[in-house]
UniProtKB/TrEMBL annotation:
InterPro entries: FucosylTrfase_pln, GDP-Fuc_O-FucTrfase. Belongs to the glycosyltransferase GT106 family. One of its GO terms (molecular function) is glycosyltransferase activity. The keyword Membrane applies. The keyword Nucleotidyltransferase does not apply. The chain crosses the membrane at residues 52-77. Keywords: Carbohydrate metabolism, Fucose metabolism, Glycosyltransferase, Membrane, Transferase, Transmembrane, Transmembrane helix. It comes from the Eukaryota. This is O-fucosyltransferase family protein. One of its GO terms (biological process) is fucose metabolic process.
Length: 569
């Protein structure tokens, strides 16, 4: 990973303390049992077999069953999604402001007005008890402290990675805001008090937990050590917490990521100035996280036609990751694991319908191949800008620090009207999740697996055919509110537990009349009686919607959409 994603990789130390710095250390047995009761609530019931059965027999039966099922269902599964999209009924909201097969609005989702971010504490989420790749790691560190009912020491950032950035938490994030905002969730201190360190018989215990460990693991494996040693340091804390947690803990993740983690004032000020300068030139702009730096290409193992020079240069960089296996560049491209070239990103955007006069902000570090690699993208979008072009001398204090440079890119990408990712890295995931949380601003993720074959064959078709196929490939990758079912995907990218639907008190209907665009606001009663918008056949759907919103049943306003119409020609 390079400059534009350094700020989102956290592999430094997490320090947890079991100490209550505001009460005496010695506690009676009753107090201790009360605390352990909190911990034990995370321990699940475990089934214990009474009859010993050889594991070889169990595994053999399981494999046989899986094979038998696959034999009968393999062909059906491949077409299941295709059939499901055509058999479902279309609900009333999908008819709002829609005539025939209208093309997608590439700047904004028509359904974004129906959603908003919601991460407030639930009624049963108790106040904090004083016991004692960066954004994702820090966010999960707070949640782990909550699970263990421990005090969190402000995390240390990794200073020994590929990027050699000496920035620490205090240099990137507003630490006082962080501590204050989380005061009702988790107690946070800047460092372990000196008197506590001196009173310890041994130094803090250091350990590394497996990736994506669940709550039970922390309670069973980490908590006993924390209670015994009083201070525990968890190292390399990136993606060390399960994606699947209860709703209260998921909402805590959102409060940390989208509210508590605020950049320092110098970073915020410069980022906002760049946004203002883009807005002065254009009312709307696209931000592209290009991610075509040498380290990213080396890590991917992909090949881009640069001959022996490219193979040698990227091969030398790849050696820095000792655990990376030998892979086939051709197979990686077929699997959709290769970042698009700047030229391919430009072709994608033009095919989707963005005009030549669209303003582009490119978030990136050092592009492999330099200006020659960027030239095709500049030709497709001449209004091409970077932080270096917009900031000039103002950027000098930040230049030696890749994390702070990435934070500036983060702000501009977050504020853009459309955000385009070019890989599945940490920064892209976190930004995609934040933009969903903040109102489902358009976020485009290239469907690289299907696009790779299309780009290879683009010289064999005319532009209209190419554009039509691009739109077809991108169905389900345009950032619509419910492109993925809640609970699937990485939570930091799809924070479903923190996104709520607005109650249908009124509906904003986008309508076109000639060259003019206007909005009509309808309340529920008007919507039910409006044959012009819904037609008589839609009244039952509206009534069903009203009944569901007053019950405890989960509501989905896009459950019955025929996605074929989202990207019509």
């Amino acid at each position: 990973m390079g400059v534009a994603s350094k700020a989102w990789r956290y592999s430094g130390g997490l320090v947890l303390s079991s100490l209550d710095f505001s009460i005496p250390q010695q506690q009676n047995a009753k107090q201790q049992s009360q605390k352990l009761h909190f911990y034990n609530c995370f321990l699940g019931w475990k089934w214990r077999p009474t009859v010993a059965v050889p594991w070889t027999v169990v595994c053999g039966l399981m494999l046989f069953a899986v094979g038998l099922i696959s034999l009968f269902t393999g062909h059906v599964a491949s077409d299941l999604e295709w059939y499901s999209q055509r058999l479902v009924k279309r609900t009333w909201y999908y008819k709002l402001g829609r005539g025939s097969r209208a093309p997608i609005d590439v700047w904004q989702s028509k359904f974004s007005n129906f959603y908003y971010g919601c991460s407030e504490r639930g009624p049963h989420f108790a106040p904090a008890v004083r016991l004692n790749q960066q954004r994702t790691g820090i966010t999960d560190a707070v949640v782990v402290a909550r699970i263990l009912n421990a005090t969190l020491v402000v995390p240390e950032l990794d200073h020994h990675s590929f990027w050699k950035d000496e920035s620490d938490f205090f240099d990137i994030f507003d630490v006082q805001w962080f501590i204050s905002y989380l005061s009702k969730d988790v107690p946070v201190v800047k460092k372990v008090p000196e008197k506590v360190m001196k009173s310890m018989e041994k130094p803090p215990y250091t350990m590394r937990v497996p990736r994506k460990s669940d709550s039970e693991y922390y309670v069973e494996q980490v908590l006993p050590i924390l209670l015994r040693r009083r201070v525990v340091q968890l190292t390399k804390f990136d993606y060390r917490l399960s994606n699947d947690l209860n709703e209260d803990l998921q909402k805590l993740r959102c409060r940390v990521n989208y509210h508590a983690l605020r950049f320092t004032k110098p970073i915020r000020n410069l980022g906002q100035r760049l946004v203002t300068r883009m807005r002065k030139m254009a009312k709307r702009f696209i931000a592209v996280h290009l991610r075509f730096e040498p380290d990213m290409l080396a890590f991917s193992g992909c090949y881009y036609g640069g001959g022996d020079k490219e193979r040698f240069e990227l091969g030398e960089i790849r050696k820095r990751w000792e655990t990376l296996p030998e892979i086939s560049p051709e197979e990686e491209r077929m699997r959709g694991k290769c970042p698009l070239t700047p030229h391919e990103v430009g072709l994608l955007l033009r095919a989707l319908g963005f005009e030549n006069n669209t303003y582009l902000y490119v978030a990136s570090g050092e592009i492999y191949g330099g200006e020659e690699t960027l030239r095709p993208l500049r030709e497709l979008f001449p209004n091409f800008y970077t932080k270096e072009m917009l900031a000039g001398e103002e950027l000098k204090p930040f230049l030696p620090f890749s994390s702070r440079m990435a934070a500036i890119d983060y702000i501009v990408c977050d504020e853009s009207d459309v955000f385009v990712t070019n890989n599945n890295g940490n920064m892209a995931k976190v930004l995609a999740g934040r933009r969903r949380y903040m109102g489902h601003k358009r976020t485009i993720r290239p469907n690289a697996k299907r696009l790779s074959a299309l780009f290879t064959a683009r010289d064999k078709m005319d532009w209209s055919t190419f554009a039509r196929k691009i739109k077809s490939c991108q169905r389900g990758f345009m950032g619509e509110p419910e492109e993925i079912k809640p609970g699937r995907g990485e939570f930091h990218e799809y924070p479903a537990s923190c996104i709520c639907q607005k109650p249908p008190k009124y509906y904003v209907v986008n309508k076109n009349k000639g060259d003019q665009k206007f909005k009509t606001v309808l309340n529920v009663s008007e919507a039910e009686s409006s044959n012009k918008i819904f037609g008589n056949e839609r009244e039952k759907s509206v009534l069903k919607w009203k009944n569901r919103t007053t019950s405890n049943e989960p509501v989905s306003i896009t459950e019955d959409i025929d996605h074929d119409d989202f990207l019509s020609d």
